[in-house]
Design brief:
The complex is a heterodimer.
Chain A lengths: L17 H13 L4 H5 L4 H14 L8 H10 L17 H13 L8 H9 L18 H13 L8 H10 L17 H13 L8 H9 L20 H11 L8 H10 L8 E2 L6 E2 H13 L16 H9 L2
Antiparallel strand pairs in A: 1-2
Chain B lengths: L10 H26 L5 H13 L4 H15 L6 H21 L4 H11 L6 H14 L4 H13 L4 H14 L4 H17 L7 H18 L7 H12 L6 E5 L5 E5 L13 E3 L4 E12 L7 E5 L10 E2 L8 E9 L5 E9 L17 E10 L21 E3 L28 H20 L3 H18 L9 H14 L4 H16 L3 H5 L2 E4 L11 E4 L19 E3 L19 E3 L22 E3 L38 H7 L6 E3 L8 H10 L5 E2 L2 E2 L2
Parallel strand pairs in B: 2-3, 2-9, 12-13, 13-14, 14-15, 15-16, 16-17
Antiparallel strand pairs in B: 1-4, 4-7, 5-8, 6-7, 8-9, 10-11, 11-12, 17-18
Helix pairs in contact in B: 1-2, 2-3, 2-4, 3-4, 4-5, 6-7, 8-9, 10-11, 10-12, 11-13, 12-13, 13-14, 14-15
Classes of the chains: A mainly alpha, B alpha/beta.
Chain lengths: 325, 689
């Protein structure tokens, strides 16, 4: 890893307890009987993506049994082509993306009937270019990002109406330069990541006022060095991803203090049991562990694989998809 | 997942958790059995309510309830009363779920779904919203739902604006309320609704309102972005305008086939045209589309009805750009001619928001063609441009040249526009400047200094578009210096702004610009016709802009600065030689703007940081397959690991490249470059075979 760019001693500001976090993730995978686990049963597909991508960024993807994961994933696919959050649950676009992302990690996209998945997703695009999450019609720009990201990974982006998809996203652009979940919705870092990511993948970033949005985003950094998701809210490690990746995609990441953010993320580690929490001394979970590690990767923390800010997958996985063959 | 304290779990807690988990699992198992068997009895449906009460995020249960409702509605024995009672049940389940988690997407969507069946009343929904918005005024689910209800039930925008006012008066620190207010006001402004017709009446009131928020607590961000929006509304004219062109209006352009010629041509307007054509550049004040040979009419002596191809200078396939270029073919024999260009006499040049270009304008210039005198005995050797201090001498204007730099009369394009930089705008800005000076006299605060800096720049640009005076630039630079100390977390933001102001200041007057005009002296080119090199080196510039005054530049020295980005450089279409040596470029993709510079032959990117960084911040701002902005043209397997180099360099016609001092530039990389650029003659100072 390129240490030269990092310019300061990691010993001074704490270290990333890589081994502990790997151990934590593997243990969560096995602990299916706690109340926390059962209550998150329905989003296990997301959990798999968060845990496995973190392992890959830490160089430890081979700690899991790929075949087990893959057969469980395929068992979550429905007739419609969409994937559910876990076996028995209904399909939804959220879990379809996570499934495809995990398959990409293992370089197993070829087990998919790509047309089947593409049909599910194209069927969710509405007249105005927006996307519904599932047959029940909830519309949100998160789903626009998911559709675009997923079909792009499957190399069939042209199966949706990209122009309309982009114009719907732009209709959710706010006067502060940010984006909301639907037209008129308040700017929120999570939505901004989704919209900027979708615009990045479709070559449409010229529609973003990078200076205006960049200033809104850089002002998410509060005194503690952490990032919040919108004005006057508390910092949270997950925004180290949503805000940071957005800043990177529009080339304004130098407007925050990267060192302070690294320190904040490292302070959110549970150095005893592994895992990363939303804020220092809070309970850890896989979600925040992933976003903390991914955020550190974007900050070029040494010892981590580089992560792609638009696809939220390791850069080598994305390059393999687009330049491999 | 959020906000739970970290504590070691005690064995009794773990046991309790496992018991709770088993109960929930049993509930879930039973639920799935009903769902998969499509059983919608009262008992089954009640079970789903129990499940959602414990876990409102169990999305399949919400789906199930919708199926149950639809199943019931399709029964022959259903009547309006039983339907009402059924849907009331749904609303109750939603409310109870929201009490558990008022951010549950599933719960809010279910409520919308029920309402779309034509159920509930405005009052009931608004009362529910009131409850939630009082509990958390920033709950965006509630605000979104409010918007949904307002639209569904046709509540007036004015009533909703009043609501935002009430929320704000309850607590100024309510970004959500300010946001909603801005959405509603801008919608009304656009519709030119009665009472909201004029910005000049509305804005002063809004400024008063926002001052209360900002001045009460300057560190609270809630008002900052709203104020910036008001400022933008005050300063920005909707309609696109032509700001600058090359060739400039009234100028004399000399096109030479070879620089080694005698003649008394001005070094500012003598251009080498080895391609048989020269560029015409149109620089607008904002991105536009619709520039074509039907909206831009060219009349010239040598090509009366030529269909020119106008190209937008933007990444990817965007048909929208702030700068447009077309190449006009010039005659091959000696020639003098006038060219007149009319822009925007037909209505199709528009901004992305649909505002039309409204001030048709015409500019004209003279072209003098001096083709090459071919001397067969001369060997064409690629000159090695060395960007060293001793190779440049300051340009001294000849006494006859009154205005050597053509672009300074530029803004007197026959626009006939905006001498009405409407009074209300400058008045509003002046008033804001006064208010913020007052705030700063009471307390040193970041938003005060930042806003004052922005106001002063906007005021200068608006008040003195023709006089090119930037009266306040010293003060603005001071403010940014203060801000770098006051708010070190964001000091790179202030540094960038500082650089932009500095650059604008240096290019705002002819005298200051001339101080940076040099000529390159070497043994090959004679001094006559030797282009001016604009040297902006060693200025600690972290960012560059203000290209509208620099369209005439053919050689640019930006070495020894702190540039990470060269965004906007694509506008400089005449660029032949460019030095970006000793800067902070981090990746090859950052060179994207250069791909549009068809005249660029000499490039120095030595001593940058290309190859040092694992994260590429311009990965999606360049033309590549990753952003679907080019096809997969890279067929050579050997070049796959060098895809950035391939896409960035393949369209450049460089004859000289300097890349030493970058980690990426090892021997393998250099051989890749030679492969990608067959026309390259010199690499790192060495002649190639």
């Amino acid at each position: 890893m390129a240490d030269a760019s990092f310019g300061f001693s990691t010993l001074q500001m704490g270290e990333l307890a890589i081994g502990k976090h790997v151990h934590y993730i593997l243990s969560v995978e096995k602990k299916k009987d706690s109340f926390e686990s059962v209550v998150m049963d329905h989003l296990r597909m997301n959990g798999a993506y968060w845990g496995l991508t973190t392992l890959d960024l830490l160089g430890k993807l081979d700690s899991v049994n790929a075949d087990e994961v893959l057969s469980w994933i395929m068992a979550c696919q429905h007739e419609s082509g969409g994937f559910s959050g876990n076996i028995g649950h209904d399909p939804h676009i959220l879990y379809t993306l996570s499934a495809v992302q995990v398959l990409a990690l293992f370089n197993k996209l070829d087990v998919l009937d790509i047309d089947k998945v593409a049909t599910y997703i194209t069927g969710l695009q509405n007249e105005d270019g927006s996307f519904s999450g599932d047959m029940w019609g909830e519309v949100d720009t998160r789903f626009s990002y998911i559709a675009i990201c997923c079909l792009s990974i499957l190399r069939c982006l042209d199966k949706i109406n990209v122009e309309k998809a982009v114009s719907y996203i732009l209709s959710c652009k706010n006067l502060d330069g940010g984006f909301g979940c639907t037209p008129g919705g308040e700017s929120h870092a999570g939505q901004i990541f989704c919209c900027v990511g979708a615009l990045a993948i479709t070559g449409s970033l010229h529609h973003v006022d990078k200076d205006l949005l960049g200033w809104w985003l850089c002002e998410r950094q509060v005194k503690s060095g952490g990032l919040n998701g919108r004005p006057e809210k508390l910092p949270d490690v997950c925004y180290s991803w949503w805000v940071l990746s957005s800043l990177i995609m529009i080339d304004r990441v130098h407007w925050i203090d990267k060192e302070k953010l690294v320190k904040f993320i490292l302070d959110c580690q549970d150095l005893e049991n592994g895992g990363i929490s939303d804020r220092p001394d809070d309970a850890v979970d896989v979600f925040h562990t992933y976003f903390g590690v991914a955020g550190l990767s974007l900050l070029e923390y040494p010892g981590l694989k580089a992560v792609d800010p638009a696809y939220a997958l390791p850069v080598d996985v994305v390059n393999r998809i687009f330049f491999g063959r | 997942m959020h906000g739970r304290p970290r504590k070691a779990s005690k064995p009794e807690d773990e046991a309790a958790s496992i018991t709770k988990a088993q109960k929930l699992r049993a509930l879930q198992t039973q639920f799935f059995s009903f769902h998969h068997s499509k059983i919608y009895t009262k008992e089954a449906v009640e079970l789903s309510a129990k499940l959602l009460e414990i876990n409102p995020e169990s999305y399949t249960a919400w789906n199930y309830r919708k199926l149950a409702v639809e199943h019931y509605l399709s029964q022959p024995d259903c009547n309006p009363e039983s339907v009402k009672s059924l849907l009331d049940d749904e609303l109750r389940v939603v409310e109870s779920a929201l009490r558990q988690n008022f951010k549950s997407y599933g719960a809010w969507h279910h409520r919308k779904w029920v309402l779309s069946k034509g159920h509930s009343s405005v009052d009931l929904e608004l009362r529910l919203l009131d409850k939630f918005q009082k509990a958390d005024s920033r709950n965006f689910h509630a605000w979104n739902y409010r918007r949904f209800v307002a639209e569904l039930m046709n509540r007036s925008e004015k009533d909703e604006i009043k609501y935002t006012e009430d929320m704000i008066y309850t607590n100024f620190s309510n970004y959500s309320a300010w946001h909603n207010r801005s959405v509603l006001l801008s919608s009304l402004l656009e519709k030119k609704a009665e009472g909201f017709l004029l910005k000049e009446n509305l804005l002063p009131e809004e400024y008063e309102f926002i001052h209360q928020a900002i001045f009460t607590d300057p560190d609270d961000q809630s008002g900052w972005f709203y104020h910036l929006w008001l400022l933008d509304q005050t300063v920005t004219t909707d309609h696109p305008l032509l700001v600058s062109t090359w060739p400039a209006h009234g100028s004399d352009v000399f096109l030479v086939g070879d620089r080694c010629q005698n003649g008394s041509f001005s070094p500012f307007t003598t251009v080498l045209s080895d391609s048989g054509s020269f560029p015409i550049v149109l620089y607008f004040n904002q991105p536009v589309k619709g520039v074509s040979s039907s909206t831009v009419i060219i009349e010239c002596g040598f090509n009366k009805n030529e269909e020119l191809l106008w190209e937008p200078l933007s990444v990817s396939n965007s048909q929208t750009a702030q700068v447009w270029v077309a190449h006009l073919k010039c005659p091959t024999s000696e020639h003098d001619s006038s060219v007149e260009i009319s822009v925007g006499y037909s209505k199709e040049i528009v901004s992305p928001r649909g505002s039309q270009y409204s001030h048709p304008s015409t500019f004209s210039f003279k072209v003098h063609v001096q083709p090459v005198e071919r001397d067969s005995s001369r060997v064409s050797v690629a000159e090695n441009i060395l960007w060293r201090e001793e190779n440049f001498k300051v340009y001294r204007a000849q006494s006859e040249e009154s205005i050597p730099i053509p672009s300074f009369d530029q803004l007197c394009i026959k626009n006939g526009h905006e001498s009405t930089a409407s009074n209300w705008r400058t008045e509003a800005l002046a008033k804001e400047v006064e208010c913020f000076r007052e705030l700063l006299s009471l307390m040193d605060c970041k938003i005060g200094k930042l806003t004052l800096a922005r106001l002063l720049m906007a005021y200068d640009v608006m008040s003195f578009p023709f006089a090119n005076k930037l009266v306040h630039s010293e003060e603005v630079l001071e403010l940014y210096n203060d801000l770098m100390k006051l708010d070190p977390t964001h000091h790179r933001y202030y540094k960038d702004e500082h650089s932009l102001v500095l650059l604008r200041k240096m290019t705002s007057s002819e005298e200051s610009l001339l101080q940076h005009c040099f000529q390159y002296k070497d043994s090959v080119s004679s001094a006559i016709g030797n282009p001016i090199c604009l040297r902006l080196n060693n200025l600690s510039l972290s960012r560059i802009r203000a290209f509208e005054r620099l369209l005439w530049v053919q050689m640019l020295d930006l070495s020894h600065n702190e540039l990470e980005s060269i965004e906007g450089l694509e506008a400089m279409q005449l660029l032949y030689g460019l030095s970006l040596g000793n800067n902070k470029l981090r990746s090859l993709t950052a060179l994207e703007p250069l791909r549009k510079l068809k005249s660029l032959r000499v490039l120095d990117i030595s001593y940058n940081q290309i190859g040092d960084h694992s994260i590429d911040t311009t990965r999606y701002l360049c033309s590549s397959p990753l952003s679907h902005s080019v096809g997969s043209e890279l067929n050579d397997v050997a070049l796959i690991n060098y895809w950035e180099a391939f896409y960035m360099f393949k369209d450049l016609n460089l004859t000289q490249l300097d890349i030493v001092g970058n980690t990426i530039a090892d021997e393998k990389f250099k051989s890749v470059l030679v492969k990608i650029m067959p026309l390259l003659k010199r690499l790192n100072g060495e002649l190639l075979d």
